[in-house]
Amino acid sequence: MALQKSLLKLQGTIGGITFYKSKDGYMAKEKGGVDASRIANDPAFARTRENGDEFSNAASAGKLLRDAVRVLGNDASDGRVTSRMTQIMTQIRALDDVNARGKRCVAVGIGKEGAYPLLKGFDFNSNAVLSAVLFKSFRVNTETGEISMDSFFPQKELALPDGATHIIFRSGLASVNFETGESEMIVSDPVRLAIDAPAQAVSLLPAKAPAVAGVHFHLLSIDYVQSVNNLDYSLKNNAFNVLSIVEMTTPAAE
Q: Do 246 and 191 reside in the same domain of the chain?
């Protein structure tokens, strides 16, 4: 591929050359590759089709989980969260020891022991890793979904960005069924604390359990706001906003 250096930036295909825009700028490359119909039907490309099917399954599973938690994660994600999640789902899909190559799926792999350490601790915003923002231990009750902290002191136990006057904690309990594609997220009431608030207990409890049967993901969200005349304003900076999977329970373990 080549970088376009002319003043006129092109996009599209002209004379067998494809022009496109990437994160590195405007690029150009020669059109090529194997015909799609041959890949879909030629026995010589059986392995290619199998790899494609399994990658598609991993990508779909990652999207399912991201969509399920989106209500908490709009301001707490980075530009590579999709690829990072797909990479993990690819590893989980490989844990499927039941189906043949090309048919292995996340729905089976997610129930295996090795899936737990891959997903627990996943930060949707790599710019704000939970362990680098919150310096206080917390408890997760997997039966009720409650996340709690004893005697939390914001000024000493939280990274504080310039301009923030308050923090907002939320917890989420998401149930995701990777076989049916169903999901449901129940979010706790927010707990809003001033940056200079005294030490106090924090409890984040979802109102109920999700009705969808699936893998349970317990999530912790931390947002920073600036309060002006009793109105909260987002800092418009996701460098500190956190969304992290702090616990995971599979149906087999419930």
A: yes
Q: 129-137 long-range CB contacts below 8 Å, 24 or more apart?
A: 129/242, 129/244, 130/220, 130/222, 130/242, 130/244, 130/246, 132/159, 133/158, 133/159, 133/222, 133/240, 133/242, 134/158, 134/159, 134/220, 134/222, 134/242, 135/159
Q: How high is the pLDDT of residue 233?
A: 81
Asked whether residue 135 falls in the same domain as residue 102, the answer is no
- Model confidence pLDDT, tens digit, residues 64-118: 999 999 988 777 788 899 999 999 999 999 999 998 888 899 999 999 989 999 9
The stretch 138-162 carries a mean pLDDT of 94
Rg (CA), the chain: 22
Give the span between the Cα atoms of 100 and 50, in whole angstroms: 10
Q: How many separate domains does the chain show?
A: 3
